[in-house]
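Hi everyone,

Forwarding the result from last night's run.
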Amino acid sequence: MRLFFAIAAAFIALTGVSASAQDHSRIYDKAALSADAERYKLRVTQIYELGVEPFLTDAEKQRIGEVELIFPMPQEGDYVLDFYAYEENGRGVVALPVLSLKALEDLTTAYAWIYSNNYSLSTIDLYFAMLQHRPESGFAGGRYPPPLAALGVPADAYKFPPVDQLSLSLRNEAYAFALIHEIGHLFHDHPDFFDVSAEEAQADEVEADAFALEVLSRTGTPPLGPTLFFQAQAYSLPNQGQFETEAAWLKYLAERANHPITTDRLRAMGAYMRQTLADKRGDERDIWAFIGTRMDDIAEVLDDVDLQTCIATLAKEADLDLLTPRADVAGDAIAASCG
């Protein structure tokens, strides 16, 4: 059974579905998000000013120019884990939606709490799969539940050791990766993905991934948090298991998918970490090589079309109680149904 969060050891048929098939804008109460918005703005700005900008080369800074960070509130049709960048009036703009920052924070808190309590991590996979395959009407109150509530994680779980330290580290690493990835689009002067072919847009994503990993490596920050981010995206974005044929999947990639989490993209990151970056990191070589291998593990799970098809069915039809904490993998619903 391979459906477990692949980095655990480090610590310790729907055809033509689009990324916007479900509306995630109401996962959180907007008043609560508004109250958190300033905190996220301050934290991400601090990460940029202290943990990113000093590690850019002079040539990179000159090419990127001035960067403005913006923090949009949710709009109808928003996807839960989405960041983007664009140029406006000759200046680069990186958008870090409050919805996505909150969801990443909850994801890393949930992971840290579930892992620290020796519960099955695959309930997180199932939750994010439900966000893709089940409409809001399939949940109590006709809206998607926030990750912590859905997964039975205490709202104040981040206060307790060792959850606090682990969740904070994972969150900041994920924030840094998302931020640098978007800056990578500005550095490489990538056009708006609506203005290019899906194939070119996907190549731009790989290039921005490499830029983010390269800059993170200079900071001495191993990308454990980003691995959680990609794991969640792997289950909340379309994958081959949802398509009736391989040809239909390839048609989707060629014509509609601008930001897919494909096995090629994951393996490109894995190879870059295991080879280029691991060789640069000296004493940290093993951890970078390990994380690169974990990216390959996620890709392998995505390559299993039968498994992905089973997960999609389970996410659409399973009782929501299956998201509650479970003491061992052998007892969880995904392993029992799709293992």
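Residues 163-187 form the longest helix (25 residues).

Cheers,
N.
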